[in-house]
From TrEMBL:
It comes from Toxoplasma gondii RUB. It holds the Pfam family CRAL_TRIO. SMART domains: SEC14. Residues 86-219 form the CRAL-TRIO domain. PANTHER family: CHROMOSOME UNDETERMINED SCAFFOLD_125, WHOLE GENOME SHOTGUN SEQUENCE, DOMAIN-CONTAINING PROTEIN, PUTATIVE-RELATED. This is CRAL/TRIO domain-containing protein.
Length: 219
């Protein structure tokens, strides 16, 4: 059964439950003497919804842990810049780029794995993903109108033994945890029947909602 997920968080009326969640969360932060960073304020409702779905028995404390982890992750991972030689090279090769929008005006991110140099590390691939996503949040998303995107993950011409299961799952997990409710759908475009076999193994590491977001198209 497909899970119904809220698509718009900004400039929309909050339900009584959502207002209560935010109030309780702020009270918990005050009790724990944790000051909510300014940049995190717009993301609080997304974090609360994420933890409400994933940890229904203890969503409030899990939300605080999640928010703190987001802050620490950003301190370690940022800043990112296209002046970074390695990152600039991947962008120049067209390994990942934005192109147009879908019928609902969601931005489309193209990931061309065949253009990634073999020496590309998982960490560099993650940097590329986050850089492109941050760029989209600033220039392509429209708060209250379009707040999610679609990813076309092109694995054609990629040998089966090089199929990046870890990169695929890591990308989904990173976007889910650091940018909750921003990924509407990920299409995996492939030309091999065996990709489905690999996917049947990989999906056990993803949640039901994450699996729902990923669709396969064989060409």
């Amino acid at each position: 059964k497909e899970v119904c997920i809220r698509q718009i968080f900004f400039h929309m009326p909050l339900s009584e439950d959502e207002q209560l969640w935010l109030s309780d969360f702020r009270a918990l932060c005050a009790e724990k003497k944790w000051i909510i960073p300014y940049f995190l304020e717009p993301h609080l409702l997304r974090v609360l919804w994420f933890c409400k779905r994933k940890y229904p028995d203890d969503p409030l404390n899990k939300s605080l842990e999640h928010a703190q982890q987001m802050v620490e992750w950003r301190r370690e991972f940022y800043p990112l810049s296209d002046k970074d030689p390695e990152l600039a090279e991947l962008l120049k090769l067209g390994a990942m780029y934005w192109v147009g929008r879908d019928p609902s005006l969601r931005p489309l991110l193209i990931v061309r794995l065949s253009r990634l140099p073999k020496a590309t590390t998982p960490e560099l691939f993650k940097k590329l993903t986050i850089f492109c996503f941050e760029w989209a949040l600033r220039f392509l998303m429209v708060p209250g109108v379009v707040e999610t995107c679609v990813v076309l993950f092109d694995v054609r011409a990629v040998p089966l033994h090089q199929f990046p299961v870890s990169a695929l799952t890591d990308m989904v997990n990173t976007l889910t945890k650091q940018f909750p409710f921003r990924l509407h759908r990920m299409w995996i475009i492939n030309d091999s029947f065996f990709v489905q076999t690999v996917w049947s193994i990989a999906k056990q590491f993803l949640t039901e909602v994450q699996q729902q977001k990923m669709k396969f198209f064989r060409q």
